[in-house]
Amino acid sequence: MSKRFHLLTIEEVLALPDPEWIVDRIFPASSLAQLYGEPAVGKSFLALSLGLSVASGVPWLGSYEVARGPVVYFAGEGHTGMKARISSWLEQHEVGAQEVECFRLIGEPLPLGNMTDVDALIAQLRETFGNTRIALVVLDTLARCTEGLDENSAKEMGLAVAAAEKLKRATGATVLLVHHTGYEASHARGSTSVRAALDTQAKLSGSRGTLTLVCEKQKDAEEFEAIPVALLEVLESLVAVGEGTGSPVRLRIARQALPESQRTALEALESHPQG
Question: Could you read off the pLDDT of 185-243 as tens digits, one per residue?
């Protein structure tokens, strides 16, 4: 007779493997995480940089080692503009398209209220990647992936969390929910039942040249220290970069933060050096 539950002994508990990370000490592997912030603060640029770093093995924000693996990015508001964003990231990091071959973009939301669609995704990922564990699934945004559900209802958002958890368990992925702040901008919008289910929660705040990523929850480890982030103009889009990227990048960020009149004056001086 098969047994429904596995009763672990103390010895079996102590023999369990230590936690793994997709980004060292920031995002645990096979977890449910959330990145939130005010509209247009740069969450999608940061989430995309995370996905491309994990897919390519390039350190995230220039400093944080990643566990390389397949990534699936749901651009719930459509993929308009994603070509420019991805091209800019590849240019900034001197990475070729073949080096992010295991990155997949889906230009529509994943309906977390429809388990049939979640099951279809799981089946398609198995067909695409075989037995390889998915490293990261980004749902950008949670609001678009829960259309038709009441985001203030613990019961209905519990269904969305259950769908995300099923996706996590079936694929082994970290599922990252990109979300907006509430009315007062001090917390993530909607039911607190989502936060209760998270392993990691991080908030992005500030302005383009002086953003900060702050850990607000780390369930099974110490909270990571605040991470400075900036959005750098590259080609026709922006790329999220960190302070470990190097002084030339910091100088470019500082230049972009100047008022247009001062930038124009600086460019004039540089084009006509004195002496």
Answer: 788 999 999 999 999 999 999 987 789 999 999 999 999 999 999 999 999 999 999 97
Contact 240, 53 (CB under 8 A): no
Separation of alpha carbons 254 and 236, rounded Å:
18
Reported as a single tens digit per residue, the pLDDT across 100-118 is 999 999 999 999 999 999 9
Q: What is the Cα 88 distance to its own chain's centre?
A: 17
Q: Cβ distance 22 to 54 under 8 Å?
A: yes
Angle at 123 between CA 127 and CA 115, to 5 degrees: 165
Can you tell me the distance from the alpha carbon of 225 to that of 63, in angstroms, rounded to the nearest whole number? 13
The separation between CA 275 and the C-alpha centre of its own chain, rounded to angstroms, equals 49
Number of continuous H segments (helices) and E segments (strands) in the chain: 9, 11
Q: Which residues does the chain have with pLDDT short of 50? A: 247-249, 251, 254-255, 258, 262-263, 265-275
The amino acid occupying position 212 is T
Q: What's the token pair of residue 228?
A: 């400075």
Q: For residues 149 and 143, is the Cβ–Cβ distance under 8 A?
A: no
Q: Which among 193, 202, 196, 211 has a CA at the least distance from the CA of 256?
A: 211
Q: Which residues face 229 on adjacent strands?
A: 211, 242
| Residue 1 exposed, middle or buried by CB count within 10 Å (0-12, 13-18, 19+) | exposed
User: For residue 222, how far is the Cα from the chain centroid?
Assistant: 19
| Beta-carbon count within 10 A of 230 CB | 26
